[in-house]
Amino acid sequence: MRKIGVFVFAGVIAAMIGMFIADMAGDFFNGMDYGSAAVPGMCMYLCVVVVTCTGIIVSKLEEKKQAENPEETKNP
Q: Whole-structure pTM over 0.70, yes or no?
């Protein structure tokens, strides 16, 4: 149960960071109205999150593969 709580807390923190970045983009693109300018900020943040999470998943898969077949990694 404690592990789930940590992930929920991390998710809330990530959502707060995303809102902050969207707000900053809304102010940065001042030629647009605020709502339309916040959308690129949200998209930029989601791109970073997707790339980061994909990298974590791929690294865990590679780590698991190396743990299952240690002799294959020594002689490529």
A: no
